Amino acid sequence: MEKTHIRQRVIFSAMAGLILIPGRALGVSAAEQADEQLFIQAEGIESVLENCYETEVKDNINLYLVPTEEGEYLNMAFSDTEDYTYIRSAPDENSDWVGKLYADSAAQVLEYLDGWTKIRSGSAEGYVPADALITGTAAEEQALEYENNTVTVTAYALNVRDGQGTSANILTQIGRDETYEVTGEAVDGWYPVKVGEIDGWVSGTYVTADSSYSYGETKEEEEARIEEEKRREQEALAQAEAQAQAEAQAVQTVASGSASAGQAVIDFACQFIGNPYVWGGTSLTNGADCSGFVQSVYAHFGISLPRTSSEMRGAGYAVSYEEALPGDLILYDGHVGLYMGDGNIVNAMNEADGIGICSATYTTIVAVRRVL
After folding, report:
1. 3-class SS at 307?
2. Residue 254 burial (C-beta neighbours within 10 Å; 0-12, 13-18, 19+)
3. How far is CA 337 from CA 243, 294, 362, in A?
4. How far lies 98's CA from each of 125, 127, 345, in Å?
5. Which of 67, 105, 150, 367 has its CA 20 to 30 A from that of 7?
6. DSSP run (H or E) holding 195
7. Taking residues 6-14, what's their average pLDDT?
8. What φ, ψ does residue 336 adopt, rounded to 5°?
9. What is the pLDDT of residues 162-212, one digit of tens each?
10. Rounded to the nearest 5°, which phi and psi values hold at 47?
């Protein structure tokens, strides 16, 4: 499942002078006067532990003793579910759900009940089945698996390279204040990151590394997120449609321009109908063969074509006969003509007929090339 839900920095701090034990709160008095000494009430840690056992929560004591690099955090837990579990308004499967705790989410434990745990994850607060959470020592051991590690660029432009070090090849560049996922362990001060579809490395000198956890979301937050995703999807669809229309219009404009330019080529070529066919010739007035005729017609428009019909098969770009426009080259085995439209070509046919018009499909067409 994609991590589309709420992400926040995880900051859990113990209340000054308060030791949290399920079902108890043992206060440590603060000095009322500046010259008074701080003191701890007579009830010490031994009696605290004894009371824990007496209240049948001895299995939970480790939950309150899980350290992190930022100090001790209390009541930390992680989700243990395939996709998500409902956060409910009451410790009852039939109660309304008020939020969702996702598979990669962290939570703060607020209260233990029989088979249920009251939690807060992000803005969502309520009850989840106890077996949907990882707590205590297990939570400490698996905490790193739930961390989201990112780097934020501090330079105006930062190279993403295919290895560690400035001698590695540059794959792309990223900009200041942009944040990217760290995909593995740092090596010699370089972080592996994912930029779109590109996997590369960035120098730790020009980024700020950060770790965070993902959290659940309330029903209202989920509804708002889904609506926003729909809006963005519709926006993207509208943009794609607009782009497709623009491209179609551009193609139509180009085709229209090609047809117009191609018609000018045909109008020019038709001036020489009736002139003689001369094998090896390139003169539109004194005689030309098929390729010499086509080559000379296009030379009038500043377009250079190869000398032979076989070489002309590589000129311009291919189109289908159904897409053929006036001016396109219609190529056969050993022959070439200029498409006029309406299924006809103008070409230097043979010594008997000279330059004239005939059907474009009088024999098998091997290629149609557009050079405009």
Report:
1. coil
2. exposed
3. 37, 7, 11
4. 8, 9, 75
5. 67
6. strand 190-195
7. 39
8. -150, 145
9. 999 999 999 999 999 999 999 999 999 999 999 999 999 999 999 999 988
10. -70, -30
